[in-house]
Every structure is written in C-alpha cells, then in structure tokens.
Specification:
Chain lengths: 323, 505, 155
C-alpha cells in the first residue's frame, strides 16, 4: 500500500512538470524545447550511429536537448514522410540519406519528393568501391574493362538493387559502354561474401569499410572507387573520374528539416551544424566509430541531392528502368 | 594463439569485467524473457555505452546480452506459451505442454542445460577451427543456400506432426507474407495495398508479438474467470522428479544435444540464416530420429533439448563469419561489428594477426560467459517459476501492456501496434483451427532466403535449375530433403497404424 | 456428412479461398519495375504460393470427405469466440486511445479492464496494479531505454 501511494505521487509529479512545460512553449526564441531527430532506420545502423553522435554534441550549441527517435518502416519512407509533413518549426529534423529522399521518390514509392526538405548539412559520405578476387582474369580496372569489352554480359557483379550501388555501377558501365550481369543481394556484406566465395566476379559495395580488411589481406583486389577523390584507406585505387568517367556517387548522411523552415530557424540550425562539425569532441567521436567527416553546408548539400537525383534519373531512363 | 593467452587473461579477469559479463547476461535474459522487448534493440541501445569502455569490456557486455537474450526467450515460451524471442518459438511446442503437466522446472532446467552445452561446444569450435569453418561456409553460394532453405522448409511438414497439410498451408501463408513490400531484388512493390507502411514489408517484431503473445492472450482470456481464490497461471508439481532433469534423462538426450549443436553451429556460420531456423531444423531432425516421435508437441523433453540447444549454438556459430570474414550473420552480430569498428578493430582476416590479444580475450570472455550463464540462469530459475504461481489477472494484463508498448517502440509507429493486433487475431484463429503458428513464422523467415537464392541461382546459370542437382553440396541437401519428407511420412503411418491397433478396429 | 467432416471441408475451402484471392490480386498488386531482368518474375513466388494453397486446400477437403482425416478439432464455443472478438475490439480501442491520449492514462484504464475480465475482484490490488504496472513499464521504456512512448493529450 505504501508503495502504491509512492507511485501515485510519482505520476502526479510527472503530470505537474508536463503541464508546466506545455505552458512556456510559445513565444520564446528558437529553440525553446527539445528537438527531435528522426532516424528513419532501425537502431544500430550507420545512419543511426551518425545521428546519435550528432545529437550527443549538438545540445552544447543549441542549448536544448536533442532526442533521437527511430521511426523505421516502409524502407525509411515512413520516417521521411513524418518529417516531410511535420510542421516546419525546427523541432522535427531528419537524419537524411539517399535511401530516404532520393531512391523512393525516384521510383514513385514515396508520398514526398526529393526536395521536400530543407538542407541543413552533410555530415559525411561513404566511398563506394568495386573489388574482385585475385584469381580473376583481371588485376586492375583497365584489365577488367578490356575483359568485359570482349565478353559483354559475362562478368557478374553483386550488389544491392536499385539503390546507390547498382545505379552508381550502371552509371559507370553506361559511361564506359560496357555490359555486365547484375546479381541482386540484400546488403553490402552479402555482396562481399558472394565475391569472396567466388560465386560472383565483382562485389560492388557502398562502403570501403566492408572490404578493406580483405584487400589488406590479399583476398580481394580493390579495382575502383566512385568518390570525388581517392579514399584514404585505398590510396592506390583510382577513382572513376581519374579514369575519364564523369561518375561521382557517394551516399551521404546529413541533417535536414521539413521544407519551409522560417529563415531565422534555418540559419540557426545551419550555424549550429557548422559548430558541431568543427567541434573537437564530435570529430574525436566520429573518428572513433570509423566515420569520416566530410561536411557540406546548406545549399552545397542541396546541390548534392540535385546531382544525385538527376544523375540517377538519367541512368534509369536510359536503362529503361522506368516508363 | 598461446602467446596471446596471458595478456588476454589479464584483460578479462578483473572484477569489473566479470561483473560486466554478468550484467550483460542478466540484461539479456530479462529482455529475452519479456515478450515485446527484443535483443537487437537492446544491443543497439547499449552500443553508445560501450564506446567509452575498453573494447574487451564493451564486447563482454554485448556478448552477454546476446547469449542471455537468445536463451531468455525460452523462459516465457515455457511458462506462458509466448516466446520472448523468435528463436524460442519452437521451444513453445513442447515446453508449454510440459509446464501444463506441472513440469515447468524440468523444462526450464533442460533449456538451461541445452543452451549452455550448445553454446560451449560452438564456442570451442569457434576457438579451434574458425577459419576452416568459414572457408567451408564461403563455399555456400546461392545454389547451396537454396537447397538448404528447401531442406529447412521440409522440416515444416515434420514439425507440424499430425496436421501436415495444415502445417504446409501455414508455411505457405508465411512465405506469402514475406512477399508483401517492395521486393529487394527487382524493386517492384507487391501486395502493399497502397499503404506506405507496408513498403518495407510486414514488420517482423510486431508480427511475432501478435502471432504468439497477443493470440495467447486471447486464448487465456477465453477461460472464464473463476470465482475461486487460487487462479494461478499453471500449477507446479510437488514431485521432485518433475522439476529436475535426471541423469538418466540427460544421457538419453545426449545424442539430440550433440546433433542440435552441430546444426546450430552450421546454420549460425552461414550469414543470413539465424537461430530460429536452427531451432526449427534441430527440432525436426530430433523428431525424425526419435524413438517416440508421437510425444513431440505434447511435452517431449527431447523437443525442448533440441530447440534450445539448436538456437543457442547459433551464438557461437554466428561469430565465426563475423570474426574471420567481417560478415555479420544476423541483426545482433551486425551491431557487434559496429563495436569492433568503434575501437579500430576491423573484423576479417587481419583481426587475428593485428589484434590477437583482443581476439583471444573475446574467446576467454565466451567461455567465462558460458559458466556465468549457467550460474545466473539457475539462480533465476526459482524466481521465474514463481512467476507462474502469480495470479493470471495480474500477469496477463501486464504482458499485454508490455507487448503493446513493445510493438510501438520498435519503430515508434502506431501502425505496428495494429499489425500486432491483426496477427493476434490471425494467430488466435490458427490456434483454434489447429494450424501451427510456428510453421507460418518459419515460412515468413525462410521466404526471403528462398526467393533471393533462387533468383541468384537462375541469374548465374542463365535460367537453368540444373546446378541445384549438379553441385555436390546442393545435391546433398536435396537428397536430405527428400529423405526427410519420406521418413516423416513413414513415422506418421506407423503411428496411425499403432493407434488403430490400440483402438481395436 | 458428420459435423466434423463438414468443419474440415470448410477449413479446406478457406485455404483454397486464400490461395484464389492471392492469385486474383497478383495482376493489380505486383507492380514490376520495367527493365529489371532477374530471370524470375516477381509474381512467381506469389503465384507458386497461391497455386500450392489451392492444391493443399482441395486435397485437405477431399481427404476429409473420404474419411482419411482423423484430426480431432478443438471445441469451438460461441461464448469463447465472442469473448475473443470483444477483446480484440478492446485492444484496438486501447491502441487508438493510446496514440491520442497518451500511454500512462490509457494503459492504467485498460489494465484495469483486462484484470477485471481475468477475474480480479480485490479492489485494492486492482487499483495498485492500475497505478503501478503502467508506471513501471513507462519507466522501463522512457527512462532506461530512452524510447519515447506516445504522450498524447493527457500523458
């Protein structure tokens, strides 16, 4: 009986604090309450970790807490829709990746468009790469191109279908005028597994982290990367651009809000974003989790979306992947 | 390896670290035992906590949760017919009937012994021949995986004992449920009915909560409220032999335990499968080679041993591809991969040469965790058994509240709670009409593997199904499948004949 | 035809019906992305499942009619089914209110209802449960796990 009384008291207390919070909500300068950062994927993934790192440092500059909420489901469309349709007051933000604002709209599988968000900033991007087992007929990308040219449609590559890996690969294959055979897999790890086991010729992965150990151990040859510049982990592997193909595709992770944020709120968020990126503690945290900070601010980040969406739109039109 | 042993022992054997392992196990068992809370979520939430720890401590915590959580599901499975984790779904089949016969103590003890032994042997294999096992696992391409899935599916007809056709129908519906959502292979959206919430498929955990926990709640609530004083969940037999596993019983089950360990190890080592499949296949195999297969599903000790050993041996098996290849086998090991990366350790071929101390320390942690698992689970047992002497009017409403909250928090999405209720209704009807819900779950879990491996096989062979029969490993599984089905039909016929003879007709 | 046989035939018919519905829905519910060559149509598995369900359902019904099905069904009582339907409706109401009014308040209410249905008549215990159970669950999720539950209008 004593205990239940105590518990009742607790409930009453929590009611009290809540209603007090509700009253002072209006009028104050932004931000006046906790900000929700929506992660449209499950807990523990890369986007989630990036978001949690960001949310752990951002309060130092916001003066308000930032709560990470995993709103997964519908291949991230549910979380995306939630933010796209949230009131643009700056209290609901999105941990954004191409998986949310580029690919679902690309295939008309989302109730929002790629630009229905206000860009705050890019935290980082990952390097996509292709790799093969050393016992294949090619040791580097030039030899691969030569081999694929004389054996069109014979060389197999494994990667996730209709997302950055396959569409990025197709952009390159199209630019090089080559034809490959695609083997769809569920995730990067499965692509690497299939290549290691010799079941496919090439693994196309969206992150160098999945192959680096095998490359260092001589079990896989990294052939080419799709980033702007060479990857620090693979200094000897050329980029597609170096080889003369105008293909840059690096899946990004960043922060965005619903479209139509008031100018002063957007400005505040962009400032805080920059401060976090330059924060020593944040940089240390990100290095620890093996993520490279590659910040892009405001409109530059918006440009990345435009590049991605237009580049991918072109390739799916060309390949007849969409009417 | 030997040169790393001393530093590794120093890393592991300090009071704080041992306490962390114990804490991990405790958290895991608790989370595992509560339907509505799940291990992957817990591991993900503990992840940031491990950032500030020494890598060995961080891994100790998560490995503890992993092992404890895989085992913990069996507790609620046995006591209230509600698996706390997907892997424990098979444990319900015999564990719950045992509890109803007053043998909850015996079933829970069997589940501890099976889990700990399965884990221990799997860990020893991991420590001694991990790279060889990994090399073998890599030989499994799409074709081999396809025939393995066929084999696993064939156990549906074995497990659903007397209602084979109903079991198959349930399995087919499960496979169909996996189809819903946007197809990871061709990107086409299927059976989404235009609901964006279904674009990523029918959410797994709400489905599990509904199918097992909510449906059981509906079954329980049917029972008229009795006016009597004692309305406990189940009675506990006073007889000592109903609460303990005798040495004789243990000896009779050693073969089952070893077989299930092997199955769990093998399936765990193949990325993308997992503990539920292993429990299912172990159970089917045990039933097919049992001396009294009719007892399965009615409270067979052998069934509990098979399911629990099978699912916990996976924890050792799944670490093999993780450590040697850097390829996670399931959601939990995928997050564990994160812990390694956080501390600058890259799992894969280099891990053993570059960070030998850590790897050996992980091995030591595994063994220590085994021992602690046994101790903690045995201590907790008395507490859990007491749970079922609790009044039904307290326990079941509490469980349903946790389930609703749990279904919501998986994705912070109210839609998921409705999914759980819909599957609760479906599960209830299935139970009423003798359609095995476990078969539906297996169909749902195996469906994606079946479809992707078949598509990959066809792409690689330019549309021919021949490789399924010409590749040696694949052929073995095809033959096993055929043998398995024929054998189970034979057993059923024998049982029916015996029954008819007994009825004197 | 005995009542038992009739029930088996109905079960077989239901399984056949599910299979048929799947087959009928395939053209409208499988939206292929053109140009994705995968050697196997995305409709293949649904089609296979549909056809197999029909086959299983029909053979089940036939086996029952010729008397090869010896399965003894669980007793179905009208009152039990009504209780189940009523409970499902309660759960739907709970979920709906839970998202609108908040977790703590609705959970307390529905704990009380369910506990009462299960036969709790001791008011003191009932009241203690109504207060304690939701709070403990809430504490577990919101404080320990830091996963917010819906707060709604009333919390």
């Amino acid at each position: 009986m004593k205990r239940s009384f105590f518990v009742m008291l607790l409930v009453l207390l929590s009611f009290g604090t809540l209603s007090a919070e509700g009253q002072k909500e209006t009028e104050a300068e932004y931000p006046s309450k906790a900000i929700q950062l929506i992660v449209p994927w499950g807990a523990g993934g890369r986007t989630d970790i990036n978001a949690r790192m960001f949310a752990s440092v951002a309060p130092d500059y916001l003066g308000q807490p930032m709560v990470v909420i995993n709103k997964a489901g519908g291949a991230s469309v549910i979380g995306g829709e939630y933010v796209a349709k949230a009131p643009p007051d700056g209290y609901t933000l999105l941990a954004i990746t191409p998986g949310t604002n580029i690919f679902p709209p690309l295939f008309d599988q989302a109730p929002y468009g790629p630009y229905d968000f206000d860009a705050i900033g890019q935290i980082g991007s990952s390097t996509m790469a292709i790799a093969s087992r050393p016992d294949r007929a090619w040791k580097n990308v030039d030899e691969l191109i030569e081999y694929a040219r004389s054996n069109p449609g014979k060389v197999t590559y494994a990667c996730v279908a209709l997302k950055a890996p396959q569409l990025g690969f197709l952009r390159w294959a199209d630019a090089a005028g080559l034809e490959f055979k695609h083997v769809p897999v569920g995730n990067d790890a499965e692509a690497v597994e299939a290549a290691l086991g010799g079941h496919v010729d090439i693994a196309m992965t969206s992150s160098v982290a999945t192959i680096i150990s095998h490359v260092n151990a001589g079990k896989l040859n990294a052939l080419m990367v799709f980033s702007e510049k060479r990857d620090k982990l693979l200094p000897d592997t050329p980029t597609a651009v170096e080889l003369g193909y105008n293909v840059v595709a690096s899946p990004y992770t960043g922060i965005a809000g619903p479209k139509g944020l008031p100018p002063e709120v957007l400005a505040k968020l962009r400032t805080v974003f920059r401060q976090v990126m330059e924060d020593k503690k944040f940089q240390a945290l990100m290095t620890k989790v093996g993520e490279v900070i590659d910040p892009k601010y405001g409109d530059d980040f918006y440009e990345v979306w435009r590049n991605d969406f237009e580049g991918y739109s072109e390739v799916i039109k060309k390949m007849g992947l969409k009417q | 390896m030997v040169e790393h042993l001393l530093p590794a022992l120093q890393l592991v054997f300090n009071p704080v670290n041992i306490l962390i392992i114990a804490a991990g196990l405790f958290i895991g068992i608790t989370i595992g035992a509560i339907p509505g809370l799940n291990v992957p979520m817990t591991v993900a939430l503990l992840l940031p906590v491990t950032f500030s720890m020494h890598p060995v401590s961080g891994l100790s915590l998560l490995l503890g949760v992993y092992k404890g959580g895989t085992y913990g599901g069996s507790i609620s499975a046995i006591l209230i017919n509600t698996p706390g984790a997907p892997a424990a779904a098979v444990t319900c089949l015999d564990g719950y009937p045992m509890a109803q016969q007053g043998k909850a103590g015996k079933a829970l003890r069997a589940s501890i012994y099976g889990s700990v032994i399965g884990e221990f042997i799997a860990d020893l294999v991991l420590i001694s021949i991990a790279s060889q096992v990994a090399a073998l696992a890599l030989k499994f391409g799409p074709t081999e995986k396809f025939s393995l899935v066929l084999f696993a599916l064939s156990t549906i007809s074995v497990v659903s004992s007397r209602h084979k056709l109903k079991g198959i129908a349930a399995g087919l519906i499960g496979i169909f449920l996996h189809v819903v959502g946007s197809d990871p292979i061709s990107g086409s959206s299927r059976f989404t009915l235009g609901i964006f919430n279904l674009f990523g498929g029918v959410p797994f955990l709400p489905l599990l909560i509904g199918l097992f926990a909510v449906s059981e709640f509906l079954i329980q609530i049917e029972r008229k409220a009795s006016a009597g004083k004692k309305d406990a969940v189940a009675f506990i037999s006073e007889r000592r032999e109903d609460s303990y596993v005798s040495w004789k019983e243990f000896k009779e089950n050693i073969k089952t335990i070893l077989r299930s360990t092997l199955i769990g190890l093998g399936i765990g080592a193949l990325p993308g499968s997992g503990s539920a499949i292993s429990a299912f296949v172990s159970y089917g195999a045990a039933r097919n080679s049992s001396r009294d297969p009719e007892k399965f599903g009615k409270g067979s000790l052998e069934g509990v041993f098979a399911a629990e050993t099978g699912n916990n041996a996976v924890t050792g098996g799944a670490l093999i591809p993780l450590l040697t290849l850097g390829i996670p086998g399931d959601a939990i090991t995928a997050i564990m991969l994160g812990v390694f990366l956080v501390h600058g350790l890259i799992p894969g071929p280099e891990l053993f040469t570059k960070s030998g101390n850590i790897v050996v320390a992980v091995f030591v942690v595994l063994i220590v965790a085994n021992i602690l698992h046994f101790v903690i689970a045995s201590l907790g047992l008395r507490l859990f058994v007491r749970l079922i002497s609790l009044s039904r009017s307290i326990l079941f409403p509490t469980v349903i509240l946790i389930c609703v909250a749990g279904a919501f928090t998986v994705n912070s999405n109210i839609f998921d709670v409705y999914v759980a209720i819909v599957f609760g209704a479906l599960g209830y009807l299935m139970k009423k009409f003798n359609f095995p819900v476990t078969s539906l779950l297996m169909g749902y879990i195996l469906g994606p593997l079946l479809e992707t491996s078949l598509v990959q096989t066809l792409i690689l062979s330019d549309g021919s199904v021949l490789p399924i029969f010409t590749r040696p490993i694949s052929l073995v599984f095809v033959l096993l499948t055929v043998f398995f089905i024929l054998w189970s039909l034979l057993i059923q016929k024998k049982a029916l004949d015996r029954e008819e003879a007994a009825n004197g007709t | 035809m005995t009542g038992l046989e009739r029930r088996h035939v109905i079960e077989g018919f239901l399984v056949t019906l599910i299979g048929t519905v799947i087959l009928i829905l395939i053209p409208s519910q499988v939206n292929e992305i053109p140009g994705m060559e995968t050697k196997m149509s995305p409709s293949f598995i649904p089609m296979l499942v549909g056809v197999s369900l029909i086959a299983v359902g029909v053979s089940f019904a036939v086996l029952s009619i010729v008397g090869r099905n010896k399965e003894k069904p669980v007793e179905l009582e009208k009152e039990q089914l009504l209780r189940a339907v009523f409970t499902i409706l309660l759960l739907v109401a709970y979920t709906f209110l839970f998202s609108k009014l908040g977790f703590l308040v609705t959970s307390g209410l529905f704990y009380g209802i369910f506990s009462f249905i299960f036969g709790a008549r001791n008011l003191l215990k009932l009241f203690a449960g109504i207060v304690a159970v939701p709070v403990v669950i809430w504490f577990f999720f919101e404080i320990i796990f830091i996963i917010p539950l819906p707060h709604g209008l009333l919390y």
